[in-house]
Amino acid sequence: MSIHADDEFNLRLALDSELDDVTPHAGLADMVITRYRKGRRRRFAGVVGLFVVFVGIGVPVGIASTSGGAPDGASSVPLRLGSYTLTLPDRFHLADAKTAPCATGAGAARETAAVASGVCVLMLFMPPASPGQADQDVPRGAREVTVGHYRAWLAPPGYMLSGDGTALVIEGDGQDLVIGASGLSRSALVSLVSAGLSAA
Q1: Residue 9 — φ and ψ, nearest 5°?
Q2: Among 66, 127, 156, 185, which one is most buried in terms of CB atoms within 10 A?
Q3: Pairwise CA distance, residues 54 & 14, whole Å
């Protein structure tokens, strides 16, 4: 029989029933109960100590995140063109599309850019390409990729007039969205656009 004492009374009864045929020392029951109480006090003190530690850590973190932390949306930079928004990490900042390092020089009427250390991202509109065919807007050698829920082509190197970047051409109604980048690999550009592109 194992002893599962929930309280002092049950412990005393369990000891009495286990040891009824043994003659214990006069203070044995009191010594066992005293040890049980000490262990119980230690467990209670440990629980209270953990609670105090978690509250001590949690309260300052909670206060900092609600009152002194950064405002919502401060961890991203929205690059907007027409109904499209490309949400970029906070290391980027908006730049003049005409003077950005990845500027095409084509003088597109609607273009926008963002730059970070060694990286430039440019968004512009072009007339639509024929779906699924390579022509002047989707150059020969472009590879079709899925970017989020958009149909897109990953243009071969040199497609952008800046020459050193990569470009994605996203099929749209009435006009295609071109997202070009310098300083990013093709896979990094696809990942960036997949994670951050949305349309209103």
Answers
A1: -65, -45
A2: 156
A3: 37
- Order of strands, sheet of 119-126, starting from the edge strand that comes earlier in the sequence: 93-95, 111-116, 119-126, 176-182, 166-170, 150-155, 143-147
User: Residue 15 belongs to what H/E stretch?
Assistant: helix 8-18
Distance CA 75, CA 90 (A): 5
Question: Over the stretch 34-90, which tens digit does the pLDDT of each residue have?
Answer: 888 888 778 888 777 777 776 666 656 555 544 444 445 457 888 888 888 899 988
CA-to-CA separations, 126 to 94, 123, 129, 158, in angstroms, rounded: 21, 10, 9, 17
Instruction: Evaluate whether 182 touches 72 at the Cβ level (below 8 Å).
Output: no
Q: Which residues, including other chains, have CB under 8 Å from residue 74's CB and lie 6 or more apart?
A: 90
- How far is residue 181's CA from residue 166's CA, in Å, rounded to a whole number? 5
Which amino acid makes up residue 179?
I
Buried/exposed 9-28: b ≥16 CB within 10 Å, e otherwise? eebeeebeeeeeeeeeeeee
Q: What are phi and psi of 53, to 5 degrees?
A: -65, -50
SS3 call for 196:
helix
| pTM to 2 decimal places | 0.57
The vertex-105 CA angle with 102 and 110, nearest 5°, equals 85
Taking a C-beta distance cutoff of 8 angstroms, is the pair 12, 36 a contact?
no
Whole-angstrom distance, CA of residue 27 vs CA of residue 81 = 86
